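Thread amino acids onto this structure.
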């Protein structure tokens, strides 16, 4: 991967002793240990470099190894735990409430001089962030989402004392609307809808040892982009949609291109989801041997668990293992194995996808990367995935680090072009700033 020259500024926040040694070093009565005797170890940057899978066979091998690693380490996912996702309330019938704001018609538009309004605040100039309300800079019309009723409202906002609703449109989605983008220059509006939260697929044992019900891969809300033509603000028209099996992490709009970042939780193949003997093997036999520190038995059972998982992954179809997506009502298709990148470090088995698509829904392109980032930052040319070492913390000795992956975005699919690695963790997107081709950041 061609690495961009990323500069990480030396502005560092101090770790607090009250946080249980969050500075990454154990402090004893004689002060911090010397460099020749560290209590924590960093991950070499070379292990975090990305490379794409050369084939679906390589992907299956990685999938099976990483999934087994989840079961065989002390940090195990909460198999079978339900995830609380905000879904919103049932959509009531649209009404004018108290009658103050009445839906208008084209004939109601006043003959007034041209009006201009300011638009939303953004962290970076030219990089739009999803909002619940957007303003047309030329007409003063407001476009807003009613999350409770899952509606899109177009409001004639000026003058304020005569504010009125131009249009009210029911959003054609069962997902939670969480933001929108207005491409005023092209009279296009994009609604972002989808669930959010940590997701782990799979199943877990009940008290009697049987496997309880589980989520299958993709068995959650997923995300959607709804594309509207708003050339007539009195009658917005849904023209296209993009659907993906991944919960929404974040998104940005740069010019006439939307970049949607989603995460997909890889899970157990269906062949194992209801296999009681597999869960007894993992949660009873293996745990018992580990507790007794019976190393020969631990090794034997580890080998059996890895083989059982590898066999199940081997016979699973790709659309069972990989997230699917579709545009304009076409059949959902799994993401191509060759469109997925991975590091060499042991990673929790999560997939981040960056989908880039025009604001009318055309020219979609998606890349995926084995990654557990939960925050992003974007500049005019790039989307950065910010992943703390919590995403690859299989080692007890792992020090706190943050990996920042840069993806170049443009008219086609995003491309990985840079990697930076720093000590400490990044608190949020406002801890990063792209300035004159250098990425500056603050860690804690």
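Threaded sequence (444 positions):
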């Amino acid at each position: 991967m061609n690495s961009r020259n990323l500069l990480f500024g030396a502005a560092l926040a101090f770790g607090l002793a009250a946080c249980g040694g969050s500075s990454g070093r154990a402090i004893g009565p004689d002060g911090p240990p010397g460099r020749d005797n560290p209590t924590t170890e960093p991950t070499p940057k070379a292990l975090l470099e990305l490379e794409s899978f050369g084939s679906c066979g390589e992907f299956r091998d990685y999938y099976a190894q990483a999934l087994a690693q989840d079961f065989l380490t002390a940090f195990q996912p909460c198999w079978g735990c339900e995830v609380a996702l905000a879904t919103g309330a049932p959509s009531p019938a649209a009404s004018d409430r108290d009658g103050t704001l009445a839906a208008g018609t084209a004939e109601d538009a006043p003959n007034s001089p041209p009006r201009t309004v300011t638009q939303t605040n953004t962290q970076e100039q030219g990089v739009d962030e999803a909002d619940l309300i957007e303003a047309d800079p030329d007409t003063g019309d407001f476009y807003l989402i009613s999350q409770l009723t899952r509606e899109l409202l177009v409001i004639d906002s000026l003058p304020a004392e005569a504010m009125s609703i131009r249009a009210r449109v029911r959003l054609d989605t069962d997902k939670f609307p969480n933001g929108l983008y207005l491409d005023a220059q092209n009279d296009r509006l994009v609604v972002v809808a989808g669930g959010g939260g940590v997701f782990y697929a799979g199943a877990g044992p009940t008290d009697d040892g049987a496997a309880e019900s589980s989520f299958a891969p993709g068995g959650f809300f997923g995300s959607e982009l709804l594309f509207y033509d708003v050339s007539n603000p009195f009658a917005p028209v849904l023209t296209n949609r993009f659907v993906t099996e991944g919960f929404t992490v974040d998104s940005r709009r740069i010019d006439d291109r939307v970049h949607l970042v989603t995460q997909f939780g890889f899970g157990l193949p269906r062949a194992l989801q209801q296999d009681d003997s597999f869960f007894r093997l993992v949660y009873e036999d293996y745990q018992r041997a580990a507790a007794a520190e019976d190393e020969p038995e631990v090794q034997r059972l580890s080998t059996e668990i890895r083989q059982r998982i590898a066999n199940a992954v081997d016979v699973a179809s790709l659309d069972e293992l990989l997230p699917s997506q579709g545009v304009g009502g076409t059949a959902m298709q799994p993401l191509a194995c060759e469109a997925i990148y991975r590091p060499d470090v042991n990673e929790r088995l999560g997939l981040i996808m960056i989908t880039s698509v025009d604001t009318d829904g055309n020219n979609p392109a998606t890349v995926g990367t084995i990654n557990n980032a939960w925050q992003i930052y974007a500049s005019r040319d790039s989307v950065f995935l910010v992943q703390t070492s919590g995403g690859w913390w299989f080692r007890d000795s792992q020090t706190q680090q943050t990996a920042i992956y840069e993806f170049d975005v443009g008219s086609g699919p995003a491309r990985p072009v840079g990697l930076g690695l720093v000590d400490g963790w990044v608190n949020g997107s406002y801890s990063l700033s792209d300035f004159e081709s250098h990425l500056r950041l603050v860690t804690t």
